[in-house]
Amino acid sequence: MFMPGARRSPTRRWLAGGTVLALGLTSLLAVNAQAEPEPADVEPTEVVFIDEFDGAAGSPVDSSKWQLDPGDNANNAELQYYTEGTDNVQLDGEGHLVITATEEGAENHQCYYGTCEYTSGRLNTANTFSAEYGRVEASIKLPQGQGIWPAFWMLGSDFPGVPWPDSGEIDIMEMVGHEPGTVHGTVHGPGYSGGGGIGASYSLPGGEIFADDFHTFAIDWAPDSIVWSVDGEVFQELTPEDVNGNAWVFNKPFFMILNVAVGGHWPGPPDDSTTFPQQMLVDYVSVTTSE
């Protein structure tokens, strides 16, 4: 962990004697932050994707790496409209991506339920980059509040040609804002999707919350294995044996997604305690694979 406001470069953190390093970790089932991680297996790796979000304040994201994904989302009963441009997704000039959920400008958009109540941002690498195994990692400072639903996740690159959930979904990190000290890691596939997704949660110790600092959310992903960690603390491993006889659909390329939803079946809508705007700050996103 590092102090608020300080940037931690993944390149500097991984370099040791000119060789990039990554952790191979393992564990099983939902545990909290007090769990003891397994010893790390250190392997040389190659950085195949990195964005440290350097650029002037108000700049858009790098279009060679990300595309915005505008629109609403009736499937999850989300209440926001994901906008185009830089109103809700922009760089802050201090090396961060900022995704803002707000009530501002919502009346200019139509959602499935009528005039929209909120706007936010969603971006992905569907047309620019797909990962297949390795460590997928981001350093993020999360928003909070009833009805706020930030996520760092992945979809099978064969989507939408292969429909969800057969395409597969890997949720590296999701948080429902009324539980600001707990995040979730989940997979969705054929026979285990939606409320039946398979996953585990991780809670910070001592009443800490994820809105107070940047934390590193990662998966270590190999054929027939996905391992989740927060700040290097492993809290779950899943293999084909854990999907209850259903198909394991995670041995193929996936693309990455970052978004902040407002409302939805899982978190429920905002209430009088929810303040806006809410912002998710992303320090970096990286993918490394074994050489």
From TrEMBL:
Keywords: Hydrolase, Signal. The keyword Kinase does not apply. Residues 31-291 form the GH16 domain. One of its GO terms (molecular function) is hydrolase activity, hydrolyzing O-glycosyl compounds. GO terms for biological process: carbohydrate metabolic process. Pfam families: Glyco_hydro_16. Residues 1-35 form the signal peptide. The keyword Membrane does not apply. InterPro entries: Beta-glucanase-like, ConA-like_dom_sf, Glycosyl_Hydrlase_16. Belongs to the glycosyl hydrolase 16 family. This is Glycoside hydrolase family 16 protein. It comes from Streptomyces triticirhizae.
